[in-house]
Amino acid sequence: MADASSVRIDGDNPYILIDSNAEAMSANKDFLEAIGNEIDSLSADMRTISLEIHDHPELQFKEFHAHKVLTEYLSKQAGWVVTPSAYNIATAFVAVYDSRKKGPVVSYNAEYDALKGIGHACGHNLIAIMSTVGALATARIMEKMSIGGKVVLFGTPAEEGGGGKIKLLNAGAYKDNNVDISLISHPGISPDAALVRTAAYTAFKVEYFGRAAHAAARPWDGINALDALITAYNAISVLRQQTQPGDIIQGMITDGGVRPNIIHAHAAGSFVVRSSSRARVEALMQRVHACFEAGATATGATLKIIPGGSYDDLIPNRALGRSYRHFFNRLGGNIVKGDVDILESPTMASSDQGNISYAMPSIQPSCWIRSEDEEGKQLGGPHTPDFEKAARSEEAHGLAMRVAKALTATAVDVLTRPELLAEAKKEFDEMKRMNEMSRADIKPTK
User: What is the residue-wise DSSP string for 392-425?
Assistant: First the structure.
């Protein structure tokens, strides 16, 4: 808690105490104007890259055009060493600027995969350029101001279910580069926020194997796999009444049999479990598995569960968030201060950036862009055709550049203020300790 002498009452929120010293520290060694000039000088190039990615949508791990556009551009920038197809991932890359002076390592994650059928309806073209221009501007400031440290830009494919960041993390990409912090931002229609949280999720497939029989002549000879799946599905529907807020169970039947006059020998479905934290998902999964086991027990069918992808929840680093909020608001933003920020900006969507937040201090601020009709009526958000159009607009580009300036200012803040990095790492270590305690304490209800 802040010392009483350093606490003031926020004028807009008179019931919230703000540590004025924490806000003021971000103003030390201020490079915001210089950062703005660098990003403005790169904005036209970023617009070209954004449209190239947007107009050539590519699915997970097949983002060959986006990979080519980004790596070729970065390879032309002075001082950058670019590794295409990094860590045996065809559409991943690692780009490094090293000042060759001692200092922290700040990193950005660029996304550029699209969604099947609706293109860049999640705005990854904007994420790509926010991270790219942020990394380039950080390097330019480091060079001009003789700031020590290193900048790493990771090209991270397949955020939409493929977990490209997790593959890079597991391959040692972040560890090999001694990364201290990770920065990224995501566009949407929610208000701008610094301390965005995302949900944890795990996906899996289920199969039941029974025994076929004639459904009219000799049904007693059969074991009905579809009955097993329906029993489990209904058990999950009942379970939903006793889950906590934030617990979500989603599912679909992908194989319900061959013909109605046959006892079904095979049935299958796809399911997703989400919750507010990794620990909560683990506990909920035990209860969900019990529902599927009940279907097998009730019918005699054999159950097979095939694990799919999973993302951890994103835990934003408050120290980094304070720095970002300070600079973003100075650029004309209006992110609320203190705990109100984190209370107002959770989402039940999921991202593989969550796994990064468990590996190092990280933030993923939200970037509001307009998805409205000419009369101001709200249109669709991410993963809708409306948002695909919004992510291409000139206005969205300008808003993305403002976010990039604040992200860059945060990176430079870390590079120039050792106490900020120390605070971010201290908070990160405490988060990990509390998470382990939470995993030990959360027990599934039987």
Answer: TSHHHHHHHHHHHHHHHHHHHHHHH-HHHHHHHH
Q: Nearest-CA neighbor of 344 among 353, 335, 331?
A: 335
Say whether pTM exceeds 0.85.
yes
Same domain for 173 and 210:
no
Which DSSP string corresponds to 19-61? EHHHHHHTTTT--HHHHHHHHHHHHHHHHHHHHHHHTS---TT
Whether 103 is covered by a domain: the verdict is yes
Per-position DSSP letters for 113-139, written without gaps between them: --BTTTBSTT-HHHHHHHHHHHHHHHH
Which of 277, 295, 312 is the endpoint of a domain? 312
147 in the same domain as 12: yes
Cα–Cα distance for residue pair 295/13, rounded to 1 Å: 52
Tens digit of each residue's pLDDT (9 = 90 or more) over 145-180: 999 999 999 999 999 999 999 999 999 999 999 999
Same domain, 188 and 232: no
As for how many domains the chain has, the answer is 2
Nearest to 343 by CA among 196, 244, 199: 196
CB 159 within 8 A of CB 121: no
Fill in the amino acid letter for 174: Y
Q: Which tens digit of pLDDT belongs to each residue from 121-144?
A: 999 999 999 999 999 999 999 999
Residues 163 and 36 in one domain: yes
Tell me which residue range forms the domain holding 415. 4-198+314-438
- CA nearest to 319, candidates 421, 217, 443, 179: 421
